[in-house]
Amino acid sequence: MIITTTTTLEGRPVREYLGIVTGEVIIGANIFRDLFANIRDIVGGRSGAYQNALRGAREEALRELEEEAASLGADAIIGVDLDYEVVGDKGSMLMVSITGTAVRF
């Protein structure tokens, strides 16, 4: 399935708009990851634990988005928007939300 942030695909006119589809994942930041991220912030460098958790959440949200579009019989998802939000008590969780429009060519 084609997934794109653009609203059109060159040479592929949209025949039917099937509706908005979403993928949402919320991950909690555990205390050990927080501790190592804080240490890394002090000495510099990138936090691999957070990057991996964020990458995993984004990939899972994309899978959900694609599954919802596939269930509608879509050929593609256009106009995709990816958002990250801190949620929960004291910002203890991260939400990855992806939306787009499922279409048939």
TrEMBL record:
<dbReference type="InterPro" id="IPR035439">
    <property type="entry name" value="UPF0145_dom_sf"/>
</dbReference>
<protein>
    <recommendedName>
        <fullName>UPF0145 protein GCM10007989_08250</fullName>
    </recommendedName>
</protein>
<comment type="similarity">
    <text>Belongs to the UPF0145 family.</text>
</comment>
<dbReference type="Pfam" id="PF01906">
    <property type="entry name" value="YbjQ_1"/>
</dbReference>
<dbReference type="InterPro" id="IPR002765">
    <property type="entry name" value="UPF0145_YbjQ-like"/>
</dbReference>
